[in-house]
Specification:
Layout lengths: L2 H14 L1 H37 L5 E5 L5 E3 L2 E3 L7 H10 L5 E12 L1 E3 L2 E2 L4 E6 L3 H4 L4 E4 L4 H5 L4 E4 L1 H8 L9 E4 L2 E9 L13 E5 H8 L7 E5 L6 H16 L10 E4 H44 L1 H9 L4 H39 L9 H27 L3 H6 L2
Length: 412
């Protein structure tokens, strides 16, 4: 019996036991679904993160005051003094690289926007910014316009709302432009609507109401505010040099003593991307570990089913041996059966994993990541299927090949 005939015999055996084949393939499919699904979801989330930071540009950085305690040099440091409006204006005037700089502050972190009888959940961020806030932060005005210089300079009661706020208050039926909404007890005329941005934070960047910076300052009253500075530099100079210059300017403005740590933090867009890549790398390792454990359980189940198959087909093995089949051909047949079953289950698992993984990524990223087809993980999944088939099939195949033909023919 040649190899081709042995393959046909293995396929006929699989076709003759459809229910057992389907159930066994389903076990493998579940393991591959967990592996490919988790890794696909991670790739989709990373793509969403990359697209979220893409609009900020490679030469974008922010100067912020840390509001939580942090550990440095083995000691717990107190939170930074807030960056004052004077600090932010001084930085904007003294930074030497001709950057586009925006100064902003969060006037209210969990407020509610109202329009007539409609109102949002109390999770809206009321942000004060200037005319450069939208382009520097990577937003796009979908409807209406940005603030004019007059509106910023004279603190007009105008607002630009995020896409989720506009959808909630106006339900896509009424044009939001020139409508009057109420936020934190103040009325604002809507002059623009931001395009949907999404992101891994669950759409927080779409739940914003942007007002002129001086309006936000007036809302604070006597309370201390901290201001964020974001700079977009178009020069081709080295990013480390730019950030170093920004740190030096800010230390002078804040009067940080020589040899003491910075009283602020500089967050680079490319640093955030690298941090997310590191995190997703650990997630991949964890996802691969979970998928491996699931496949290990599936391979043990397949091993048990193949052993049952050897027992059920003992007389068939005896007949084949009496007709001249060698132990090598017997081993090949059972290995082929195990591998084919695993490949069938693997193909089904890859299809399910692609669908489930992209669905999870879409839900987490708000639909900004796009459909991901991880060819590398798909080929890895098929390779794992073949490996599982060999692992689960080798012992039953060897056991079948060692059966004594006379004893096998007597088996009932």
């Amino acid at each position: 019996m040649n190899l081709l005939e042995n393959i046909r015999e293995g396929l006929r055996s699989i076709a003759g036991n459809r229910l057992r084949t389907i159930l066994t393939s389903l076990i493998i499919a579940i393991g591959i679904t967990s592996l490919v699904g988790i890794l696909t979801a991670i790739d989709g989330i990373q793509n969403s993160v990359a697209s979220s930071f893409a609009g900020l540009g490679a030469n974008t950085f922010s100067v912020v005051a840390r509001q939580d305690e942090f550990r440095q040099g083995g000691r717990v440091q107190k939170q930074d003094e807030p960056i004052s409006y004077h600090d932010a204006v001084q930085f904007k005037q003294r930074f030497p690289y001709g950057a586009t700089i925006t100064v902003s502050t969060v006037a209210a972190g969990g407020t509610q926007a109202k329009f007539g009888s409609k109102k949002t959940n109390p999770n809206i961020q009321l942000i004060g910014g200037d005319g450069a806030y939208i382009p520097v932060k990577g937003y796009t005005v979908q409807n209406g316009r940005n603030f004019t210089g007059n509106e910023v300079d004279y603190a007009r009661n105008v607002a630009i709302v995020g896409s989720e706020v506009a959808t909630t208050l106006f339900e896509n039926k009424l044009n939001p432009i020139n409508q009057v909404i109420r936020v934190s007890g103040i009325q604002y005329k809507v002059v623009g609507v931001l395009a949907k941005k999404g992101g891994v934070t669950g759409g927080d960047e779409d739940r914003v109401v942007l007002i002129p910076l001086d309006n936000a300052r007036a809302l604070a009253g006597t309370q201390r505010q901290t201001f964020n500075i974001t700079a977009a530099v178009t020069t081709a100079a080295d990013q480390d040099e730019i950030v170093g210059e920004a740190r030096g300017v800010m230390r002078q403005i804040r009067r940080d003593p020589l040899g003491q740590p910075d009283s602020f933090e500089i967050q680079r867009a490319d640093d955030l991307v690298r941090q997310t890549e590191t995190i997703t790398g650990y997630l991949r390792m964890g996802g691969f570990g979970i998928g491996f454990v699931t496949l290990l359980g599936a391979s043990i189940a397949l091993l048990n089913i193949m052993l049952v198959s050897v027992t059920e087909r003992t007389r068939e093995i005896g007949i084949r041996k009496s007709l001249g089949a060698t132990p090598k051909r017997i081993r090949q047949q059972f290995l082929i059966e195990a591998i084919v079953i695993c490949i069938l289950g693997g193909l089904g698992g890859i299809i399910l994993g692609l669908g489930i993984g992209n669905l999870i990524a879409t839900l987490i990223s708000g639909g900004t990541g796009g459909f991901v087809v991880p060819w590398g993980w798909m080929f890895l999944g098929l390779g794992v299927c073949v490996t599982v088939g060999l692992f689960a099939g080798i012992y039953p195949a060897v056991r079948a090949s060692k059966l004594d033909p006379i004893e096998a023919l007597r088996y009932e």
